[in-house]
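Hi C.,

You asked whether I'd gotten around to modeling the 374-residue construct. I have! Everything is below, sequence then structure, no commentary in between.
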Amino acid sequence: MRIAVNTRFLLKDYLEGYGYFIYELFRRITENHPEHTFIFIFDRPWDQQFIFGKNVIPIQAGPPARHPLLWKYWYDYKVPALLRKHKADLFISCDGFCSLRTRVPQCLVLHDLAFLHYPAGISKTQLAFYKKYTPAFLKKANTVITVSAFSKNDIAIHYPFATDKLQVIYNGIRPVFQPLDFAARQPVKDQYTEGKEYFIYTGSVHPRKNLLGLLRAFSLFKKRQQSSMKLVIAGRLAWKYDSFVSSLKTYKYRQDVVMTGYLPDTELARLMAAAYALVYPSFFEGFGVPVAEAMQAGVPVITSAGTAMEEVAGEAALYADPADHKALADQLMRMYKDESLRAGLIEKGKIKAKQYNWDTAAGRTWELIQDCVA
């Protein structure tokens, strides 16, 4: 087979959600199936680290598709021409978009419907594009993969015509996220938090992640507890972050908040594993990868009720309504005060994390690719 893959999110030193998903899946799939050819379609110059083997043909198809008008042009004109030229048997796209102008079978990965549930998190032009074209993408795709039963049910409710196409494949967890022994944690604390314990949030900074709510909850925690606990926010400033940055400048406990910016995998894994707990208060997620990463690293989790994180973590986390910063502060206090509770969550998390494996995800994706072509 000749399988074309949308790889525009494989960006050197800039891998995040979609990029990690594509990287982990297709590194395994291309290595496990050397008898097949994979055409990686980039929208800007590629890095050699993403060319996983001799059976990978990289192609640059500009211009970079980073705006709704360019999305439409890239998917509906550039991609179909390349699929014809390279005689592709399948096009797989892992970012929720596919081509509406090709007859080649398509496998679409739609992670969630965050744009419907939290429209304030994206621009008006992007929101209009998502609302207009997501139903068309779902109708056009032969197979639709999503990353949790939560997302599958949500997609089926809003687009019932796609129900029979939906398949769930959980994200995996990168193996770099592992527990650290007590002695190895202290140098991390010395490096980032003056040797103090800390709560950590990992991920990009934008409104849907509810970091203003996290600051309010942490403020209540500090007032109640008078502890030396720090808050580490590890991730890049993504979009619509001005309100958060402005709030942080005048935040009473600014000296207890550490902003790291984007970190490479190995450093992020060290920082995660040395944390007292992960706090992930996002308003909406289709999976919530940091939650799974924390569990594998032996770090207890506080996260949002009413989202996919309840499915991902089960009994291995504490939950709070993300819109209620007082409830979130209460869970910070519980985690801080009850060491036996914390220890129990760590052990439950390690067990739960074993469900999320990239080898399993790659194997199941390959089965669906074969079915889609057939």
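If it helps when you're writing up: The CA atoms of residues 92 and 107 lie 5 Å apart.

Thanks,
B.
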